[in-house]
Design goal:
This protein is mainly beta. The protein has one domain. The protein is built from one helix and six strands. Strands 1-2-3-4-5-6 form a six-stranded antiparallel β-barrel. A hairpin with a 4-residue loop joins strand 1 and strand 2. The chain starts with a helix and ends with a strand. The relative contact order is 0.29. InterPro entries: DUF8072. It comes from Halomarina rubra. This is Transcriptional regulator. It holds the Pfam family DUF8072.
Length: 84
């Protein structure tokens, strides 16, 4: 299992702070966090925008995407997860 995904799962439903590899960070109010064997998916919101975090397993990066009218736009790879 991806260690960052496990951290999100352990903190949720409390708010989390994601830090991306490019240094950007955002605080999300968590709505869900679920494992499906090795895969993980979570959703959170901030300022009316929905974000989704996904990974397919331990060796795959944890990615975050923002919901747009045309679907999901990937923001980047998550580097750190903390309680907000």
């Amino acid at each position: 299992m991806n260690t960052l995904a496990k951290r999100i799962h352990n903190i949720a439903p409390k708010d989390i702070r994601l830090t991306l590899v490019d240094g950007e960070s955002l605080v999300l109010s968590m709505r869900s966090a679920e494992f499906f064997q090795e895969s993980f998916q979570a959703e959170g919101t901030t300022e009316g925008t929905t974000y989704r975090m996904v990974t397919d397993g331990e060796d795959d990066p944890l990615l975050v995407a923002r919901e747009t009218p045309d679907g999901w736009a990937v923001l980047g790879e998550v580097e750190a997860v903390d309680a907000a």
